[in-house]
Design brief:
The structure is a single chain. The chain has about 325 residues and is of the alpha/beta class. It is about 30% helix and about 25% strand. A hairpin with a 6-residue loop joins strand 1 and strand 2. Helix 2 crosses helix 3. The termini are far apart.
């Protein structure tokens, strides 16, 4: 039985995908189930995350979003039984690739698949559905009547986020990066209040959002950032000219956010870019901190006791 794995070159970081003969599954025990895979969605592999988590291997399993039929269950499995149709997301440390006919999965990574949902729909929606749900419900607390800007709404993630936001009674605005994207979003017209076509680089996203919201700004900006950065965090010297024409700058996003608005993003270097921007503005004299006189290390204990009681007004800094 073969499964798909990837191997990353130690010299140039290039990824190659290979089918490897897989050993027979161990006896299903404890909370594990044996699953016959009926569908597995494909998603980009975050090799940087794997490296940071020290999870690099010679061959790493590929495919995590799976749907299938339970063949066998361990003695401690309580939620599932043989012949159940299920869907789920394999953990990063899974020994088995989702792209294999039969795999071994812990029961807590699986849920029952509704009868009306096809295998491909289940596998294809589970990851982006979880991400969209997490972003809209848990991170930004979406509620009826709020306005949401979903960047690159024609992406796999974007289309699910649009429909979920509309279902919750939100006013949805989305950007389109090509004619094909715009046509795709037009088919979701009942779910979208406005499509902002940025494919020609002439439309101001912030201006369009402020116009649509009567100058109040949107309550939520959802920036997936899957294939390419949906928001420009870089200076003009750092980005290709074509991309610069299409992507709004982070300042535009901050401008179009309403009071108390949320910007939800997957961009991993956003905080670093903001830190850099803060230092540049400090250097340019745009703002200055209100500092007390520097204190030596031996005074830090007493100073912290004062600060902990919220009795300090100016920022205190220990100078070594």
């Amino acid at each position: 039985m073969k499964g798909l794995y990837f191997q990353q070159s130690s010299t140039n970081g290039e990824i190659t995908f290979v089918f490897q003969e897989k050993e027979n599954l161990p006896i299903t025990e404890d909370n594990f189930v044996k699953l016959q895979v009926k569908a597995c969605a494909l998603s980009q592999i975050n090799t940087k995350l794997l490296a940071e988590m020290k999870m690099e291997k010679d061959f790493f399993p590929v495919g995590r979003e799976v749907a299938g039929i339970v063949l066998d269950v361990g003695t401690k499995v309580s939620f599932l039984q043989p012949d159940d149709e299920v869907v789920g997301i394999l953990p990063l440390d899974s020994e088995d690739p989702g792209l294999c006919e039969v795999i071994r999965v812990h029961e807590h990574y699986l849920v029952h698949k509704p009868e009306k949902v096809t295998w491909t729909e289940a596998a294809g929606a589970i990851r982006d559905g979880v991400r969209a749900y997490t972003a809209l419900h848990y991170l930004s607390h979406l509620s009826p009547g709020k306005s949401v800007l979903i960047m690159d709404g024609a992406s796999a993630f974007g289309t699910i986020a649009i429909q979920l936001a509309h279902h919750r009674g939100a006013k949805v605005i989305s950007t389109a990066y090509s004619l094909e994207d715009k046509q795709c979003l037009e088919r979701l017209r009942s779910s979208i209040a406005r499509v902002i076509d940025v494919s020609n680089g002439k439309v101001d996203v912030a201006e369009s959002c402020l116009e649509e919201t009567g100058g109040l700004g949107v309550d939520i900006v959802l920036d997936a950032g899957d294939i390419h950065l949906q928001v420009r965090l870089y200076s003009k010297d750092d980005e290709p000219a074509v991309k610069l024409q299409l992507l709004p700058h982070k300042h535009d996003i901050i401008t179009l956010l309403g009071v108390g608005g949320h910007w939800i993003t997957t961009e991993e270097s956003l905080q670093l870019r903001i830190l850099k921007d803060v230092m540049e503005k400090l250097s340019a004299g745009i703002f200055r901190p209100q500092l007390d006189e520097p204190i030596p290390l031996y005074e830090a204990k007493v100073s912290m006791e004062v600060i902990q009681k919220n009795q300090g007004r100016k920022k205190q800094v220990v100078q070594f």
